[in-house]
Specification:
Radius of gyration: 18 Å
CATH class of the largest domain: Mainly Beta
CATH architecture of the largest domain: Beta Barrel
Helix content: 10-25%
Number of domains: 2
Order of helices and strands: HHEEEHHHHEEEHEEEEEEEEH
Largest sheet: 6 strands, antiparallel, barrel
Number of helices: 8
CATH topology of the largest domain: Thrombin, subunit H
Structural class: alpha+beta
Shape: globular
Number of strands: 14
Strand content: 25-35%
């Protein structure tokens, strides 16, 4: 990704400084988006995403796009009865590893192909809500269900006409070499699900602070891999939110889920995947 002109100045501030200024919430909010996916079955999936280039590329979670937890897709008996839906009909574009349009029965194909077909046929519209409330259409540029990440791209027509995007989108610097440490203070923000908001497209913007409490090898939404466990509650809607070292504007990971330790005790402990792992496995950040 190209270098951002905005330097990460907050990290050098004194710990005793104004905490509101320290994490520079307005800077972060401008670079965050709400991802809104309308499914063909009438359901709506929403989550958080953030700009990673001036060209309108957005990083989010694959399960935000899928509209369900990825691990549940393995049990879906999903058969293709005809040609796949043309991407031009739904504003959805998927870059698959092979020509998925040739598959009629995908039950016996790889899970990746099954997921690609599920995405292509399930999504009706994929919208991005910008910081000013305006919405634009995006397409899927890359997606990986194993690490639960997706890169979206605002379509050219909408990119050129939006006031926020036409001169290039504000974006975050990414650190794909950083390794989180135990007891390290972190910060994340997104559109966390809140009681009283029945419409997920109205979830309010919220901020969270947490320390790194563990790095467990576990499955949260995608496949089994090392996650960053944070001592913070994380509710639906935050999936796809960027993770920072507190006081920094540089992204070190992506929030992708939570762990409910007991059904009767909804702790919703936050989990994130590091950009370092995503880079090592996929090379897409």
């Amino acid at each position: 990704m190209e270098q951002n002109q905005n330097t990460d100045t907050n990290i050098n501030m004194q710990n005793g400084g104004d905490r509101k200024i320290k994490n520079n919430v307005p800077y972060k909010r401008e670079r965050l988006v709400r991802v809104i996916v309308q499914m063909r079955n009438g359901n709506t999936s929403t989550g958080t995403g953030f700009f990673i280039s001036k060209d309108g590329e957005i990083l989010t979670c694959a399960h935000v796009i899928a509209g369900t937890e990825l691990r549940n897709l393995e049990s879906i008996d999903f058969r293709v009865t005809g040609s796949l839906v043309d991407a031009s009909e739904s504003s959805i574009s998927v870059s698959a590893d092979s020509n998925t349009s040739n598959y009629r029965d995908i039950d016996n194909e790889s899970k990746h192909i099954k997921f690609q077909n599920y995405i292509t046929q399930s999504i009706m519209t994929l919208q991005i809500e910008l910081s000013n409330g305006n919405r634009v259409i995006a397409e899927i540029k890359k997606i990986d269900e194993h690490l639960d990440v997706a890169i979206l791209q605002i379509i050219k027509a909408d990119f050129e006409k939006s006031e926020i995007t036409k001169n290039g989108t504000p974006f975050f610097l990414l650190d794909d070499k950083y390794t989180p440490e135990y007891d390290e203070s972190t910060f994340f923000c997104g559109f966390q699900m809140t009681g009283g908001y029945d419409n997920p497209t109205q979830y309010p913007f919220s901020v969270n602070r947490a320390v790194v409490s563990a790095m467990p090898l576990t499955a949260v939404a995608g496949g089994v891999h090392e996650h960053i466990q944070l001592n913070s509650i994380n509710l639906g809607g935050n999936s796809g939110a960027p993770l920072f070292v507190e006081g920094s504007n540089t992204v070190i990971g992506i929030i992708n889920g939570n762990m409910n330790w007991d059904k009767n005790i909804p702790l919703c402990i936050a989990y994130a995947t590091s950009l370092k792992l995503i880079k090592e496995k996929l090379g897409i950040v």
